[in-house]
Design goal:
Structural class: mainly beta
Radius of gyration: 55 Å
Distance between the termini: 168 Å
Shape: globular
CATH architecture of one domain: Sandwich
Number of helices: 1
Largest sheet: 6 strands, antiparallel
Helix content: under 10%
Oligomer: single chain
Number of strands: 11
CATH class of one domain: Mainly Beta
Order of helices and strands: HEEEEEEEEEEE
């Protein structure tokens, strides 16, 4: 009797276990982590690599300056070529001289000019662009005509005399020079400004 009850209980227990279905066991899902390769420099906190050709260090002081040094002009090269009466010659120091057209001149008292009877007078204009006072006594003006030099004539009563006072910087003075010459049609006036500068020539 007891065995029958025990056997029945065993059968019932086994049947209960068989009716309980748990289904297939679920697999544990492991999260996948994907790594993308780094392409170029990172942004968002990581310093970027310098662009190709950019100096990585601090700027170097004393970079080469752009050309800009003034160019020196050759010494002794004034505008002396082929000046005509009435034109202006300018020297490199800023001095300017013009010689006017020759005019017939009659000296006071009818004398002067030495052996020459052809006497001429020319107006001289000096503009001082040197930046400092210029003494007209430095300016030597001579005449060449025909086969030789002309004979200078001084006539203060007619303004034919060299100024005695210095010409201030930026100033201008006009005076006259006169000569007895062999032939005024063949006349060359030479102006020497002094100060080691070359002379200038004036012709018709």
């Amino acid at each position: 009797m007891i065995r029958g009850i025990a056997a029945g209980a065993l059968i019932l227990a086994l049947g209960g276990l068989a009716g309980c279905s748990t289904g297939p066991a679920q697999q544990q899902q492991t999260p996948s982590v994907s790594f993308s390769p780094r392409q170029g420099p990172q942004v968002g906190g990581t310093p970027q690599a310098p662009a190709p050709g950019t100096p990585s260090g601090p700027a170097t002081a004393g970079a080469s300056a752009s050309p800009g040094s003034p160019t020196a002009t050759p010494d002794g090269e004034p505008n002396t070529g082929g000046a005509r009466f009435g034109q202006t010659t300018t020297w490199e120091n800023g001095l300017q001289v013009s010689i006017g057209q020759p005019q017939t001149f009659e000296p006071t008292g009818g004398s002067g000019g030495g052996k020459f009877t052809d006497r001429i007078v020319l107006e001289v204009r000096v503009t001082n662009g040197t930046g400092q006072p210029y003494a007209p006594s430095k300016l030597a003006i001579t005449a060449q005509s025909g086969s030789g030099n002309g004979e200078p004539i001084t006539d203060p009563g007619q303004g034919v005399a060299q100024p005695a006072e210095d010409i201030p910087a930026g100033g201008e003075v006009t005076y006259k020079v006169a000569f007895g010459v062999e032939n005024r049609a063949d006349l060359l006036i030479v102006v020497d400004p002094g100060d080691g500068l070359p002379p200038a020539a004036f012709t018709a």
